[in-house]
Structure formats: structure tokens, C-alpha cells
Design goal:
- The chain is mostly helical.
- The chain has a single domain, classed as MFS general substrate transporter like domains (Growth Hormone, Chain: A), CATH 1.20.1250.
- Helix content is 84%, strand content 0%.
- The protein contains 18 helices and no strands.
- The chain has helices at 7-27, 29-41, 45-59, 63-72, 75-93, 99-113, 116-127, 133-162, 164-177, 179-186, 190-194, 203-207, 210-240, 245-275, 280-304, 307-352, 354-370, 374-394.
- Helix 2 (29-41) runs antiparallel to helix 9.
- The chain is globular.
- Mean pLDDT is 85; it is low at 1-8.
Length: 403
Amino acid sequence: MQAPTSTLQMRVVLLLAAAVFLNYFDRGALSIAAPLVQEELALTPAQMGILFSAFFWSYAPLQPLAGWLAQRFDVRLVLGGGLALWGLATLLTGFANGFWMLLGLRVLLGIGESVFYPCNHKFLGQHAAVHERGRANGIVATGQALGPLVGTLGGGLLMAEHGWRPAFLLFGVLSLVWLWPWHIATRGGATAATGEAVVPVRWSRLLAERSLWGTSLGHFCGNYAYYFTLTWLPLLLVREHGLDMAQMAVVGACVYALQAVAAPLTGWLCDRLIARGHSPDRVLKGIMNLGLGGAAAAMAGCAFAGPQLSIGLILVAGVFFGMQSAPLGAISQTIGGPRAAGQWMGVQNLCANFAGVLAPLVTGFVVESTGEFLWAFVIAAGVTLAGVFAFGVVVRRVAPAAW
């Protein structure tokens, strides 16, 4: 098995990190623009919740199909096609003139972005050894955190100065530009750069694996608080805490900056401990549950804290979000292995991203009915804490499945 530390393989890992950067950059752009979009198009909080959720209406259900495509075909083509579609959807959002057009483009964005994680997991499941997966996943997770960081800071400041439409045009063009270096780096074909196609595991065998449902439940629980923050943080800071667009951009960027720092450091720590002989099961599960427990505590604190302390706790939550990324990927890639990592992530991400459907919707209706965010934070804390049970009890030993 070839490590992702050779020149060619690391180049692909870095491009995967760049792709997930664009993935979260584009999906989070509407949240950053939400105060401006809501005002210009006269949208209600419930309509904003629907728009935040709509991305996941296509993104989540398509995960198993995306996992099968990633496992069966060349990652180079599957990921490239998906990114072209989501870049176009982002670009066209800059021309949206109402709720229904925005809704359609959010669904289209979800279709394009659905291929990323199965493709990423297929590649790392084939090319990274168990003591290298923490670092590789940490690098990719850094891109995941930097997407909303740059989007919130750069996009927020750009929107504050020029409005929201030019920002979407720029974001869409940047996504489409990624296709060129991806083509250059992977033009040698799947075997050289992205891993040969393999025969997928039978669905009946995959779905009978108890640990698949444990990682799916745990991923859902961790995603709930993350997507709650990703979609509603800009409006929370502007409407509830009285920040202007520029101040919101700085605070939001700090949350993702802390996540971006925590993710690779946690990945390095996981690999270091495993390389020294510690059990991958204890290391990966232990750090995963620490991240979930810490995020749950931060959400619970936000429910009852004042504005200043609440902002501080949201920053702390960013650290714990980052801690979850590396072990989360390493656990599923280790159990799924080269034959099933892409399919595994397709099913897991399907379940996990129902959090993206529910968190924005539940939050929108809770805030509209209560007039505050207290119960939204309480719900986020409770759901996140349930993830500790999923990884601690439902997931069996972290070791390759006998397909």
C-alpha cells in the first residue's frame, strides 16, 4: 500500500483539501449572505431555514449513489464532474431573483457536492495506512474548516462592501478554476493518481455491518451542532448580538480558524499514538468522543450564557469540531478498507447529512416560535452528546472488516 507522502499522492491529497475548501466555501455562502439576502428578497425566518436545508435534500439522498460511483469508477472523473456542477450552481446564485430560484440552485448545489466525501474516502482507504490516515484526514479537514473561514471573513467583508451578488459570481468562478490543476495532477489516469476501480462490496453485506450504523449515527450527532453553527451563526451574530457584517465576518472566521488548527493537530496526534503501538480502536474512539463531548458542553453553555460569553463558547466549539474530523474519517476508512471505504462513506454521509436537513429547519421554526436561540442550543447539545454513545457502544472495534 502506497502512503500519501509520495510527491504524486500528496499532490492529490492537497487537491482534495482544496476541493473540500471550495465545497464548504460554496455551501456556506448563502449563510454568510443571509442578512442581506433576507432583507433584499423579503424572506421570512422559516423561508431562510428552508433554503439552508434545501441543499441537503439532494446532497444527503444521493450519498449512496455517489459512494457506488466513487468505488466503481475513476475518482478523477467523478469528482471533476461534481465540482463543475456545484461551481455552476454557485455562479448562477448571483443572478437569483427570488425564493424559488434560490431553492432550485441550492438543490443543484447539493447534487454536485454529493460526490466529494465518497471520492475522498475511496482514495484514502486505498492509499493511506492506518497510521497515516489521521494526518491525511487532518489535511483534508483543514480545507473543510478554511472554506467557511475564508468565506465568512473574505466573503463577509466583500459583501459588506459590494453586496452579496458579486460574491457568488466570484465564488463560482474560483470553484470552476480548480478543475484545471485537478486535470493536470490526475491526467496519468486512475491507477497512477487516484486509485484503480475496485469491485464494490455487496450492499446486503455492507448494510449488515453494525459499525456502519454506529459511525452513521455518531456522524449525524456531530454534524447537527456543526451545521447549526454553519448555517445560523451569521444571523445569530447580526440579529441577536448586534454585530455588523464586518464584525460578524471576523467572529465567524475565528470559529473556523480554530477548527482549521485543531484538525491537523488532532490528526498528527492520532497517527503518533498509533505509530507508537497504541490501539487504533482506543485512540480514534477516545479522541472522537472527546470532540463530541466538548462540542456538546459548549452548545449547552451557549444556551444560558450572555452575548459575550456565548461568543466565546462558540469559539471553543470550533476547537472541538476540528478534533472530530481526523478520527471520524480514519475510523470509517479503517473499517471499510480499500474495498468499501467509498460505499461506507456514501451510506454514512447520507445519514449524517440529515442533520443538515434538520438542524436549519428545526432552528428556524424554534427561533420563529420562541423568539430566541436558547432551545436551539439545548437541542444541539443533546443531539451531539448522543454521538458519544454511538461511537463508544454501537461501533465495534476499529479494525478492517472481513468483506
